[in-house]
Amino acid sequence: MALWAAVQRKRLFPRARRLAKRLLVRWNLFTHRRDESVRRWRAVLVGARAGHVVIPSVALESSRREADDFATRRLVRAGDRVLDVGAGNGRQAIGMVELGVASYTGLEVVRRSVDWANRAFASTGNVYFDWFDVYNQMYNPHGSQEPEAVAFPYPDGSFDFVVALSLYTHLERLAVAARYASETARVLRKGGGAFMTFFKSPPNALTTSAVRTVFAEADILRIVGEWFVIEDVAGCETTAFHDQWRLYLRKR
Ligand SMILES: C[S@@+](CC[C@H](N)C(=O)[O-])C[C@H]1O[C@@H](n2cnc3c(N)ncnc32)[C@H](O)[C@@H]1O
User: Fold this and answer.
1) Atom from ligand 1 closest to the CA of residue 163
2) Which of 26, 135, 198, 251 would you label with 208, given CA atoms 20 to 30 Å apart?
3) 119-149, pLDDT tens digit by residue?
4) Which domains does the chain carry?
5) How does pLDDT run across 178-194, given as a tens digit for each residue?
6) Which residues contact 235 (CB under 8 A, 6 or more apart)?
7) Shortest-distance atom of ligand 1 to CA 91
8) Is the pTM of this model over 0.70?
9) Which residues line ligand 1 (CB under 6 A)?
């Protein structure tokens, strides 16, 4: 496990990791071939070649669990307009669609993920992905826009819920995270819900690595608290690679 964590942390052997993940996706679909829900979303769960590739049954289970968590906390409900910032290949859309949201919009910097996800979700009807050509050292190293100054391409108050899972954990600089938090608040209606995750210090050591950015807890509270009431927090009690600090937020 320590070796695997080191491989992830340093992003070692990227091609081998990607190939291994694709094989795992195929194997997982085979072992879950009788699972009704995996079959229902098969077209969406298989075939993502770019960006953040996830294992089908894990993606499905986590997407549903997270949607249920957000709904239980009344951050999102059926009929809402949802924005997913750093949407990847649309993992989160599954739980949102099953919850009955009016629309799901994914904003994402990896062009191939956006093109692929728009095709994969084409028959779903209310799921769309927009390409955001913003620089990120790991995910979009040729991005044309500097992230500190970007504006999300949506009008003020146009969403009821904004989710950003494992996005701020890649944003490299606090000024970028601050900009994304303020843009999230701008595109949310008053009283709308938001969810963000961070790695915080302590318990982690500070880093500006796009593989795993860590901000100081006080800085996170300051940039988020400027726009949001923090209704609850969870996680990030360890330095384990995926143990993120989950913030459940409400726009002031
Ligand atoms: C770890 S993945 C998480 C994907 C998705 N949120 C999920 O939970 O499955 C992080 C995503 O953030 C995207 N990303 C990185 N930098 C970004 C930026 N500056 N603006 C928007 N998205 C970004 C990456 O391309 C990647 O798809």
Assistant:
1) 6
2) 251
3) 989 999 899 999 999 999 999 999 999 999 9
4) 58-251 (3.40.50.150)
5) 999 999 999 999 999 99
6) 197, 243, 244, 245, 246
7) 9
8) yes
9) 51-52, 85-88, 91-92, 107-110, 132, 134, 136, 139, 147, 165-167, 170
